UniProtKB/TrEMBL annotation:
Pfam families: DUF1636 (PF07845). It comes from Camelimonas fluminis. This is DUF1636 family protein. It comes from the Bacteria.
Length: 128
């Protein structure tokens, strides 16, 4: 509906956490799914985002905006991820505004990745 998807690593754990199941990432998935229920936003579970040193990890992905990757999340950070998705969906420039973000999304930002539309519309730099 919104073109924004919340992607959560269900196998995630923080460094030093036991490897036993269920992993804390599964709890983060459940928290995000509960927060997004009825909102029109989709939560997708993935098996690894390769951000193990800063787990728990999630990303907010859009077909028309930048992708945001977050780490250092808590098992109950689902509502914060939903708020980030709402902010990105409402953005006019494809960027998630910083000030209204929940603190977890301010402190836990790992990367911001442009979408293909942005990359293809940007002039190429000659590297020779």
């Amino acid at each position: 509906m919104h073109g924004v998807v919340i992607v959560v690593c269900e196998t995630c754990r923080q460094p030093g956490d036991p490897t036993a199941e269920p992993r804390p990432g599964a709890a983060l998935c459940a928290s995000a799914e509960a927060a997004a229920s009825g909102s029109g936003f989709t939560v997708r579970r993935v098996s690894c985002l390769s951000n193990c040193k800063r787990g728990l990890s999630a990303a907010i992905v859009s077909d028309a905006a930048w992708t945001y990757v977050f780490g250092d999340l808590k098992p109950d950070s689902g509502p914060d991820l939903l708020r980030g998705a709402e902010l990105l969906a409402g953005s006019v420039d494809g960027l998630m505004p910083f000030r209204p973000r929940p603190e977890t999304l301010k402190r836990g930002m790992i990367a911001r990745i442009p979408n293909m539309q942005t990359l293809l519309s940007s002039p190429a730099k000659d590297m020779s």
